[in-house]
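User: Can you write out an input/output pair for a complex, sequences first and structure second?

Assistant: Here is one pair. Inputs:
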Amino acid sequence: MSTVVERLAELSQIGRGENGIDRPLASRGDRLARELFAKWARSHKYALTQDRVGNVFARRSGARDDARPILVGSHLDTVPTGGAYDGAYGVVAAICALDELEANETRTEHPIEAVAWAGEEGARFPLGCLGSSVFTGACDLEKTLSLADADGTTLRDALASRETGLLDRVPIREETRLSAYLEIHIEQGPVLEREGVPLGIVTSIAGQRRYRVAVQGTSGHAGTVPMARRGDALCAASEIILDLERAAIAIGETVATVGMFVVEPNAANVIPGRARFSVDIRSPDDAKIDAVESALRESAGRANARRRVSASIERLEARAPAPMDSKLRAAIARAITAMGERAIDLPSGAGHDAMCLCRIAPTAMIFVPSIGGKSHVAEEETAPEDLERGVAALTASIVEVDKFVI
Amino acid sequence: MSTVVERLAELSQIGRGENGIDRPLASRGDRLARELFAKWARSHKYALTQDRVGNVFARRSGARDDARPILVGSHLDTVPTGGAYDGAYGVVAAICALDELEANETRTEHPIEAVAWAGEEGARFPLGCLGSSVFTGACDLEKTLSLADADGTTLRDALASRETGLLDRVPIREETRLSAYLEIHIEQGPVLEREGVPLGIVTSIAGQRRYRVAVQGTSGHAGTVPMARRGDALCAASEIILDLERAAIAIGETVATVGMFVVEPNAANVIPGRARFSVDIRSPDDAKIDAVESALRESAGRANARRRVSASIERLEARAPAPMDSKLRAAIARAITAMGERAIDLPSGAGHDAMCLCRIAPTAMIFVPSIGGKSHVAEEETAPEDLERGVAALTASIVEVDKFVI
């Protein structure tokens, strides 16, 4: 019986639409996914807790129950057209690892907690790794609860609703101390597949900065305003987007993305008066992120000087590159070798909740291969044998890590 | 007494709402506006006729009453958040010109008819210049009457209603021959104001082509797909938009606009997999539109060759430029010079009923300045002295044109 595959299939039905899975934080689907996590936890009598932003924890007791727990998890939310594995696999694998410890009657020193972090994707509210940021103290709880989505609904209101909010009859957790954090995740890139290796041990998570750019121009009649007199916000934005792309390519070891883009009034016969877009810059090297940010600011400055627009850049978020803990990495490598499996070291281009956790506790990540390197799309996939091998590696790593962490 | 200003003020009360004037074809407001036109006509005993799509004509007899009439007019309908001048001014000015001829006991050879064209804006039924298209035979009467609005109401039904339909006790006109057509309109652009000239003589109404462009790329994770392996639909679209802008500037006497722009999936951490946008190209010179269209197609071809995307262009509409009649333009210039006023030649970037009329008769247009170049908004405005000067220029032009047209 392949529990991890079955559980992922069950979870993937929640929020599924025509173009993939859409399960943003504090949506109906997100709430149902948390309920499913709670159902799995209750079936083995793991003690459930949740915190005020919707992070949910399922605890299997350890020999020393006063010891700080080892947390193992990932997130349940998705991008608007997401797949069945990103985040979800790490949560399901964590629960499956607890079950494997239970089935083998493996006694750990530390309590082990499977955790489902809230709102990692930042798809609805303007903050990525929302749940783990609040848990680790990187973001203030009240400020985070006051964040509003595109419709003006605050996270506070969404989490207060019965339909989309916190779970019923699950106690609120205040405790945030832990001894270590482990996360297993799909690679979301092409490296493991290309190298023909089934497991990866993450060396470091790329640093990431996110920005909101607004270009204010002047809307006008598409037929009557001469080109030379236009303040076309879309043309100015296009120039900034291409400058950003050129800079990321020239600087290297860096990616820069404009993923969200909106023009106003968005009518065929009206010159766009306003454009707003997101910018996301990532690199394992903070100096390279600095260089791309400078290029972005210079480009906006050129637009302001040469076009009849006013472009402004607001930095929403800056996360430094996050190196993974070397002792935990070595423990994972030992566990995988003892299984008779192979793993390679590789960096993570994507951000993960582990990025936040590594600021407060020893943290490490395991990757499993992504078919075709695809993720954040409906076709994102990992082979069933890789999913199962990942759970085994995660379980063995928990046992190995449990031996030495404080 | 400033009749034109007073009449415009009276007319502007009809259909006025919070966000401007909303007076679509065959609405209650449109019917009331036609009734007001009829009242003005009757007060001077001009002979009223109407045709089956709601075009209304007020005829002042000429010396040769068997001669084809000179038609002078514009339209009474507005866009949903329109102003008091677009179209309305041309209709009111035409009635005021007839009154001025009457007041001065000016005898013309030809009958002069003020005309209020139906449904120029295409705001309710999916056809712009609806009334003048049917009058000039460009569109079939029965097909046009069968057009339905967004609620499914046909123009036939709307015009059959007492509330919104054809006028009572006004005979139906079958005759469509004419000797010339004159239209006075607000500029809707910034040229006259910038040049400090109170009158413009339109050289040509720009041709217009509209396209739908779709760029299909590959969405992917903003952190894990290296720049060199991306098929970013937004970057490709940005390049096409800037190529289009550059082409329109380089080719000159042309405007190109991308007014509507949408990316998918439109999430900050997902590389855009698809971009869709509108393109609107206008020029008084069809060869220049051809050249801009070629640049657009070449740019899309380059994107397809150099980027991992597939860009496709669909042409939705192509309207040839409408050159104004050179003899009529010269006659207007003579009339304005004789008044001791100044005028400049300029093209019209916006479409007008004159576009249709020029296919069947010598046609010319006069522009008055738009404050701030604004139009299709509640704040659209023209100074009272410019409105009055326009009526005087139109009246003098009618007299001049009457001397030589057949």
